[in-house]
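Recall from the previous chapter that SMILES is a line notation for molecules. Here it describes S-adenosylmethionine.
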Amino acid sequence: MSALANPGASAQAIQFHYDIGNSFYNLWLDRSLTYSCALWDGHDTLEAAQMAKIDYHIEKSGARGQQRVLDIGCGWGATLNHLVRTAGVAQATGLTLATQQAAHIAQQEWPGVDVRVESWSDHSPTMPYDAIISVGAFEHFAKLDQSPEEKIEGYRGFFRRCHEWLPPGGCLSLQTMSYENSSREDFSPFFASQIFPESDLPRLSEIAGASEHLFEIVSLRNDRHHYARTSLEWRRRLLQRRAEAVALVGEEAVARYDKYLHLWAIGFHTGTMGLLRLQLRKLETPRRLH
Ligand SMILES: C[S@@+](CC[C@H](N)C(=O)[O-])C[C@H]1O[C@@H](n2cnc3c(N)ncnc32)[C@H](O)[C@@H]1O
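With both inputs in hand, we obtain:
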């Protein structure tokens, strides 16, 4: 399997955001350093809601009790840790483009966990995976300056790879933000240049189109209100530790994160943006491979 060109954000663009400093994220994320929308159904603490989200993806991907599971965009490893510690998975492999995230995971020495600083587009496993999870990374798999056709082709490349890596009937559990009552023309220049450079959000129709004939969509939730609540909680925690945050990354960066989390909460609350959780099952004999 030859490497593809990474159609999304470069390693440098990813590191601009995620490598600002592990101690900074440690101040305002939950203890597991999960950095994606939580699942608040029946939970009132960020910790519990993040664990519920991880459990949700473990169930939807069919990862429980499996030998080999892949986490594409593994962050600081909360899902990898949970897979081997509580879900009976023998080997959990994580991909990230952020070097500080990978260093953090390597430092934990979690048995059965392996992390690589590698894009999904360069990944070339020697054996298939039993299940795949990808949470909060798909937002980085396309760029704003791509044509609509290039954008879909990039996404299709991702789904093709996941299809190749899974066994018959295997599942990918995918979570991503999306454009809802908005489009890429509405993507704020503040986010594009100062928060998530080289990134663009998908629409649900683009995910459905790009995965067609490769995966069937088994379940879908739009939990945008869960992201409004998660963003507000992150912002509350950041402001509570503001002085320490400023000492770590400076006034300007803290003001940027404060503004981004505030705008995000509004975007999810009003339905400008959505939060999709999709369970995708591999089609065994696609009639047409794109
Ligand atoms: C918002 S974080 C989500 C982390 C984690 N899944 C969580 O829920 O806490 C996005 C992750 O996607 C990773 N990422 C972005 N582009 C990637 C790519 N092309 N290949 C692999 N990982 C990528 C980043 O390095 C980062 O770890």
